[in-house]
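re: ur question from yesterday

yeah so i grabbed the chain u mentioned. its 127 aa long if i counted rite. heres the sequnce exactly as i have it in my notes:
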Amino acid sequence: MYELSIEEFTRYVVRQIESLGNITLNNPDTKESFPIGVVNNPMQSIKLTENNIPVYTRFSISIEWWTNSKYESMKLFQDTNKKLRDSNFIQIGGSIDLYDEVTKKHRYGGRYEVNYNGLTNTFERVK
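ran it thru and got these structure tokens back, copy pasting raw so excuse formatting
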């Protein structure tokens, strides 16, 4: 049995999408190199334990792409969807679609969920 931490989960997500561009864990400032993906708000909810060890855990995380154009943000977000679907992640809720006045960049993204099975060390679809 393996207990996946929030840190390990976040690192896994970053590794899955880092080929798409720069990634950060905080909202960027004007000095950043754009486009940039922002991975934040990881959460976990333990669904099942055995001997006080999580056996089944639901994780969620939000990802946004900050770019010069909304179209570019949408494309990078769609590419993110494709990469994370390979690991059984699903997008939940509506999309994040904002314009940041400080950086003058478009922000587009959303929230993802996946279940983690500690017995098999695998990500499983949320049903």
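noticed a couple things. The two ends are 22 Å apart (CA to CA). also Strands lie at 22-24, 36-50, 53-67, 90-100, 105-117, 122-124.
anyway ttyl
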